[in-house]
Amino acid sequence: MTDTEITxxxxxxxxxxxxxxxxxxxxxxxxIELCDLSKGQQKEPGYLAINPMGKVPAIVHRGVVITxxxxxxxxxxxxxxxxxxxxxxxDPQRGTYLRWLFFEPASLEPAIVxxxxxxxxxxxxxxxxxxxxxxxxxxxxxxxxxxFLLGERFTAADVLIGSALHWGTMVxxxxxxxxxxxxxxxxxxRPAFKRAEAKDQExxxxxxxx
Length: 210
Fold this sequence. Notes:
Shape: globular
Strand order of the largest sheet: 2-1-3-4
Radius of gyration: 17 Å
């Protein structure tokens, strides 16, 4: 492995699939280190030295550890600017990009997880996302004009928001809405998504045969 290659700590399926797609989008060289969640490998000392939370994904690049899917996507977009997945400093769209980049872990994913687990959400005043319906309405209005969150410009924010909606739809937490389905359809048709999905399928098949 060269000093520029990324070590990607992953489990398929998991939130690591978000980063896997992002790695394919930026076309960066990477090596996958699989964590078998069924065997608790994410809680073993070797991996806890990478991420003390015992969660995937994580990456190591040039000796630096980055965890949290949104942070990793942000890092990759800025480290590989040729992919054009982040508006640069001074670009008028950067504020909107950052808004959606952090909306996913702060609001969209928690709302979907609460709905999936049928957890009583509690007071909207206390929740970062307020309520589920409002959260989805906000996202639906943002993606309806299309094709992406920033119009014609595809960014790392689409990787995050699109991944959450795709996963939420698969687990039955996100209802069938025309705007959301069309947006997810555009994203899952991207060659990078298809490559990552195919590789994840191979990884899942390999794990099941061990």
